[in-house]
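EI: anyone free to look at a 159-residue chain?
SC: sure, send it
EI:
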Amino acid sequence: MKKFTLYNLLNSSSVKDFDLLNKLKIYVISSSELWDRLTADVEEYYIHDIPYHLLRKRVYKAYYSENAIEVFKWKVMIKLFNVDMYHFKNGSVVLYKNFDNSGEVIIYKNKKVFLRKYYIDFDKAYNVFHIVTEWLEREIKDTIEATLVEIKIEFIEED
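SC: here you go
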């Protein structure tokens, strides 16, 4: 079976095969072994309520007639490669690109992750990276702490 995430399945033409008026049953499995699949944790959601952490999981099998999907417990390991980096006092902003053309912008402060933002489209991540770095450049003379808090508030409210 082709490797794809729950997000990919629900954004494909196959989604019309589910009964979207009822909740989807999502079985979270650790392996493809029968015993593990029979004892899996099950969560039920309407399609618009599925949490982000489940959307990133790899699909094992979809049962359209039962409105059920089996996903692996462990999130998909997506290879990231560093595209660009901007350093500031006690931190940096890093732009990563994934092989599936998605991207992440991560702000590190004092060697810890201050803010991590995932984008399905790399172009959006690229634009956000440049906005954040320009914002930091403008405010570099002032306190970097206040600027980072403003950036965090801005991008959390964007969701």
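EI: The radius of gyration is 19 Å.
SC: 👍
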